[in-house]
């Protein structure tokens, strides 16, 4: 009979494997067939004989995005939806532009760890550990600095420079997903009941309605 240590070791391994991000590919590539109606984990493959270089390529990432919005942020994603060849490869890329004092509001990626580097400007970045102790781990980054946001943890960036800032990040999923905390909680459709949010945030209904009106 296997020892309890072996048993729990195996259990931990199975659990960790289940938590890991995108599974390894079983073939050279599986370029997404954007016309397929088949629903599966990832996207259906198109015939490998019809694959072209353009399936593995995109352009324009040197162009700054439009940051004229309340957050002062532009995100240009390069995920499987932009490059069909990324399907099943477990990786993606993002460009971020921040207006002065612009933010990437607190959010989490359910399927990826993110590694970010600052190309221009200065960013304050941070992530919060699980509960307990919900510790904030934060740092100011300058051009060329790199920071990692571990999978699933709530994180943010803020431009603390006088000029606009630019960053590039990579993530270990073809489709990291994003859960913006404020809009997911206060802007869900349909609403999370007011009573739930009032109790959760320890405020009254009027405050819940006010925050809701922003999303
Ligand atoms: C940037 O976005 C704002 C708000 O949507 C819009 O009014 C403006 O025309 C955009 N600027 C450019 C250069 O596209």
TrEMBL record:
Q: Which cysteines are joined by disulfide bonds?
A: 30-45
- Give all residue intervals belonging to the Cupin type-1 domain: 59-209
Q: Which CDD domains match?
A: cupin_OxOx
A Pfam family for this UniProt protein?
Cupin_1
In this chain, Mn(2+) is annotated as bound at: 107, 109, 114, 155
Q: Name one GO cellular component term.
A: apoplast
Q: Gene3D superfamilies from the entry?
A: Jelly Rolls
Q: Which residues bind oxalate?
A: 104, 109, 114
What GO terms are given for molecular function?
Answer: manganese ion binding
Q: Give the signal peptide as a residue range, or say none if absent.
A: 1-20
Give a yes or no for keyword S-adenosyl-L-methionine in this entry.
no
As for subcellular location, the record says: Secreted, Extracellular space, Apoplast
Question: What are the record keywords, sorted?
Answer: Apoplast, Disulfide bond, Glycoprotein, Manganese, Metal-binding, Secreted, Signal
State whether keyword Lipid biosynthesis applies: no
Question: What job does this protein perform?
Answer: May play a role in plant defense. Probably has no oxalate oxidase activity even if the active site is conserved.
**Protein family:** Belongs to the germin family.
From the Swiss-Prot or TrEMBL record, give the protein name. Answer: Germin-like protein
């Amino acid at each position: 009979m296997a020892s309890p240590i072996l048993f729990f070791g195996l259990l931990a391994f199975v659990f960790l494997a289940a938590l890991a991000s995108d599974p390894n590919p079983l073939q050279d590539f599986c370029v997404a067939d954007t016309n397929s109606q088949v629903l599966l984990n990832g996207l259906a493959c198109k015939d490998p004989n019809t694959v072209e270089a353009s399936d593995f390529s995109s352009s324009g990432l040197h162009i700054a995005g439009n940051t004229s919005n309340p957050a002062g942020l532009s995100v240009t994603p390069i995920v499987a939806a932009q490059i069909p060849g990324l399907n099943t490869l477990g990786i993606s890329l993002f460009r971020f532009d921040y207006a002065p004092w612009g933010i990437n509001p607190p959010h989490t990626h359910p399927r990826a760890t993110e590694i970010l580097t600052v190309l221009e400007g200065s960013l304050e970045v941070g992530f919060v550990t699980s509960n307990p102790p919900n510790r904030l781990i934060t740092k100011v980054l300058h051009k060329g600095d790199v920071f990692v946001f571990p999978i699933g943890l709530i994180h943010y960036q803020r431009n603390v420079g006088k000029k606009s800032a630019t960053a590039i990040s990579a993530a270990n999923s073809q489709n990291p997903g994003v859960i913006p905390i404020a809009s997911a909680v206060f802007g869900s459709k349909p609403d999370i009941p007011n009573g739930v949010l009032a109790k959760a945030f320890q405020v009254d209904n009027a405050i819940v309605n006010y925050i809701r009106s922003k999303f």
